[in-house]
Design goal:
Layout: H1 27-37, H2 43-56, H3 67-81, H4 94-98
Length: 118
């Protein structure tokens, strides 16, 4: 077989990745997966975020601002604040803040690219 390659296409000395059985995952890994699975947000939260974006990020321009711009200009600053009244500490994921610390399983997956217009 051919050697494994890194994400940059150069040969890697490591063996090719193989999926692990769930039973091989550590309890810490499984707990983190469960936590991440609870970071869904409602469409209402997304729409409210978009409306508030013009206040939270005054330089936001829907014709020019990328996902990267919005993450740096609004998501990260909002995440630093947290939601102390709901017991959500600062430096929490924005989805956790939007959900006031309550896990929410998503029903749909919406993905993004850092360079796309927001």
């Amino acid at each position: 077989g051919s050697p494994a390659t890194s994400s940059r296409g150069s040969p890697s000395s490591a063996a090719p990745c193989r999926p692990r059985a769930e039973s091989e995952r550590s309890p810490a890994w499984q707990a983190k997966v469960q936590e991440l699975c609870g970071r869904g947000v409602t469409l209402r939260c997304v729409l409210d975020f978009y409306v508030d974006l013009f206040c939270d990020m005054p330089h936001f321009d829907p014709q020019r601002s990328t996902t990267r711009d919005v993450v740096r200009g609004a998501v990260i600053p909002l995440s630093r604040v947290g939601a102390p009244e709901a017991g959500v500490p600062s430096s929490s994921a924005l989805a956790v803040i939007m959900n006031r610390g309550q896990p929410r399983q998503p029903h749909r997956m919406v993905t993004h690219h850092w360079g796309n217009l927001f």
